[in-house]
């Protein structure tokens, strides 16, 4: 039940017919796992906390560096050298003390990742490498946990939602296979600061939609952004029966 302070804090959301009290309560009861608290994880964590998601589990094993501050807005100059998850936790606590933030300063092994995924209502993948993306996807498929995936580099970004609760929905491995991946990093390729804000904000929007059951999430669709020309495209994704992760032989 929402208290008076919460009714006031979230009033601009509650007045939306698609959200109402039921949607806000769904967010307050939700637990979201965020993998990576960098460029994408910053706006994701901040918007989910501001929107009133009850529990956020932050996973990252990096420390805040000066080069991060150009785009990783959850961190501050004074937190340089601090673990990113602790830096982010401090910012989120100041933003919304209602949100319970769990900081995990580690790179999760398979067992630990599966445990966190199984205990979450939704996972937001904000990492920067395919090894982790494949592992997160596999855990989400196994435990039927919705996954919001995002990527951003240079002036290009993409977002998709993978929901294994739906039998005909594709998973991340239906889109990318072994040998397809190329681990581009911001330190090697560069990235324009607002790009990660745009993509991360879309990820946060999709996460809220899935958690409250509102609108039409990006399930079975890949949203692509060409920031150079501010051109958005949507590609249809289909489940691959031969997928090594969610394919028929694995069911």
Termini separation comes to 39 Å
SS summary, helix count: 10
What is the percentage of strand-forming residues? 15-25%
The major beta sheet can be summarized as: 8 strands, mixed
**Average of per-residue pLDDT values:** 95
Return Rg in Å.
Answer: 17 Å
Using the alpha-carbon principal axes, give the shape.
Answer: globular
- Record field, number of beta strands: 8
Poorly predicted tracts of residues: none
Strand/helix succession:
HHHEHEHEHEHEEHHHEE
Structural class: alpha/beta
Helix content: 25-40%
How would you write the strand order of the largest sheet? 3-2-1-4-5-6-7-8
What features would you describe in this structure?
This protein has helices at residues 4-9, 11-14, 20-29, 41-51, 84-95, 110-118, 130-143, 172-175, 186-189, 193-212, and strands at 31-35, 55-59, 100-104, 122-125, 147-153, 156-162, 221-226, 231-236. The protein has an eight-stranded mixed sheet, with helices on both faces. The longest helix is centred in the last third of the chain and has 20 residues, at 193-212. A hairpin with a 4-residue loop joins strand 7 and strand 8 (231-236). It is α/β, with parallel strands linked by helices and 251 residues long. The protein has ten helices and eight strands.
